[in-house]
């Protein structure tokens, strides 16, 4: 509105004419007219009335101080009008159609058509009422502007709406019943709404309109009828509906049916909510629905034995698993229930894994001939790892296909994997055996990507296992066997594996492995060089040839660096009598080596070697590869012309005296050439399975073998005798045993002891390293630092504080460190 | 539907204004609602107003219609000439018309 600027130069102002045709306004008479007009407006018949006239009457009433009179009169009129309308249009209809069909809650039950009719009537009544109330409020606008405002009363339009709400809440259907109109309407509405939930078509428009009415009815405190009356009823109804669904579904005891049905219902309900309900209400109902349908049941459903999570995972039901994942995500962003179920399922799988691997074994060995217990156990270990990898890839697939590649889910599953893998105290050995198998057989002639995948799988398990130092120990042993027996598919593959291990744990972990390869390479070069030289040196070559029946002697030397390889010197080997030709070769190589590497000391280990021996039996000649010590026995004792082609029997003691091979070694080699049926080169009297002192041996001239070239494997120490293995071979591996097998309990125990010992050294080293750097450290800090260094940095094992304490005390005794004089908790480095 | 409305004063004075201009008055706007006689006939009889006042009111409605929607800054808007003698009568009329 533009302000009107008064003109100041004309002082005289005409007084306004007195308003109203007469000064006296008769309120009764005026209301008479207005009341008639209002009735016509309410009956949509207002066009015969002049708005100006009605407005003027109301205006004059207000001016003549009859505002309050008018206000109350209009209010009464609204109320009276509604009473009539509701009675005629709705209540009478309900009573007539309901036909006294009253349910337990005193609500009149109506059929679908009648319900819709009631709702339609209500909607029509409402929209008419809105229009008439609006028009009336326009007529009485002057009152609203002045009287209503001055007395801080609600505008007459709002009064109208409020009366409607009041009627809906408080109006009784019949005089003598407790049933209120509002309750009846709500029930009718909700029952009609429920028809849709049960799959019937309903009038969407009327549902929307009625909800809109409920939302529009706001009482004087600002609460809407929707929030105060409708929503609570809706929630109760919905809860009942969900409860019924769940109850029906649970009776079926089928998880898949449950999940599928619930997903369907949730989808329907959500579209219903978004179509009909305001946002805030939608949220509440969704929460209720998720709680009733998912939260209360998910766990019980997932743990169903026959048709639950276990079954779905077993049968790769990705679709259903995805549904489960989505349902779980709806109620909990942490997905705790699903995670917990998966966790325990994976652990259960761990148990199953053992049984499965065992069962496969039985199937295999039933087909094959009965193999030794140890071989079975080795195969079990390999199966175990193989099966684990299958499980792992199964879960990987589930995570990508069903769990939206959820990192958290993956972590939870891996967590469970780590747990059950490490509960198996032989897992490090299993893994190393599996890798052994791969590098010896499985990966032969496989395409690069498959090789890559297999190696990565190995690394994956490697990541999962704790106590990696134990793995290192086994890997070293198995690797040594592969290298010394030339059993690897290729050096390239071996190096790939080591490279991957290195990438995972750092260079220190694999340095010994790498040094083993270096030794092999250096040895090859040296052997070649020695051969060339011995050809040049004619006397040596002549000597060797003469002593070897004028045939060329081929020797390969393998020089192993002492602390790199897993086996240690066997002092007793120094006494062994070499056959003459090897004695010369040995002496000349020693000379050659001393000239190449001045000052290095060679210790011979014939117990780790094999020899190719040509044996001429009456029937046939054979080229036999056998352990060098076994060959010594034959060459020394049974190769002399004087013994009439070795037919003269020799006793165990005699053989031992002639060869000077230690008893335990001799026993097992004799066993391999005189007891094992297929390779019985020597006859033994008596014919028993074990070798005893006093047994007599002679050459078996009737010996026959299907192949002209074959190999005699050494029998491993523990199975060769029932005697307790001598402590000397404690740290010893038998390189002549070509196949790595799983350790027996005794061997395993010993390995653990040696691990414990090397752990002591590692802890010592860590303590000294820290002390050297810090000079003085508090006990607690020192312990945690040692753990950090060994577990996190070197990734080897987790040292126990008690073990660290023991090492500390030991180091104090040895005076590498001492306790501080003032503070006993502090250790000081002694330079 | 006509875009104009005829306003009639109690002395028979008639003036035609556009409905748009008339709706500056809350009262006039309501009267134009189709539910009532005025909405149908397009003629509003204002029994409370005499000719000169209605003329001035109509003049103001046009003035307001012209400038209120102009959107120009207030400096450009000319003053509305207001006879001092009618000031009080106009005030009452404005109240009635909700101007």
UniProtKB/TrEMBL annotation, chain A:
Keyword Magnesium: no
Organism of origin: Pichia kluyveri
Entry similarity comment: Belongs to the cullin family.
InterPro entries, per the entry: Cullin, Cullin-like_AB, Cullin_homology, Cullin_homology_sf, Cullin_N, Cullin_neddylation_domain, Cullin_repeat-like_dom_sf, WH-like_DNA-bd_sf
Superkingdom, natural source: Eukaryota
Protein name (Swiss-Prot/TrEMBL): Cullin
Polar residues: bias regions: 1-10
Domain spans labelled Cullin family profile: 426-674
Keyword Ubl conjugation (UniProt): yes
Gene3D superfamilies, sorted: Cullin Repeats, Cullin, Chain C, Domain 2, Winged helix-like DNA-binding domain superfamily/Winged helix DNA-binding domain
GO process annotations (BP): ubiquitin-dependent protein catabolic process
Keywords linked to the UniProt accession: Isopeptide bond, Ubl conjugation
Pfam families linked: Cullin, Cullin_AB, Cullin_Nedd8
Region (Disordered): 1-22
GO molecular function: ubiquitin protein ligase binding
UniProtKB/TrEMBL annotation, chain B:
UniProt-listed InterPro entries: ELC1 (IPR039948), SKP1-like (IPR001232), SKP1/BTB/POZ_sf (IPR011333), Skp1_comp_POZ (IPR016073)
Main location: nucleus
Gene Ontology process terms (BP): ubiquitin-dependent protein catabolic process
GO cellular component term of the entry, any: nucleus
Annotated SMART domains: Skp1
Domain SKP1 component POZ positions: 4-65
Ranges in coiled-coil conformation: none
Record has Transcription regulation as a keyword: no
Keyword Membrane set for record: no
CDD domains registered for this protein in UniProt: BTB_POZ_EloC
Entry keyword set: Nucleus
Pfam families: Skp1_POZ
Subcellular location: Nucleus
Similarity section: Belongs to the SKP1 family.
PANTHER family, A to Z: ELONGIN-C
The protein's name in its UniProt record: Elongin-C
Organism: Pichia kluyveri
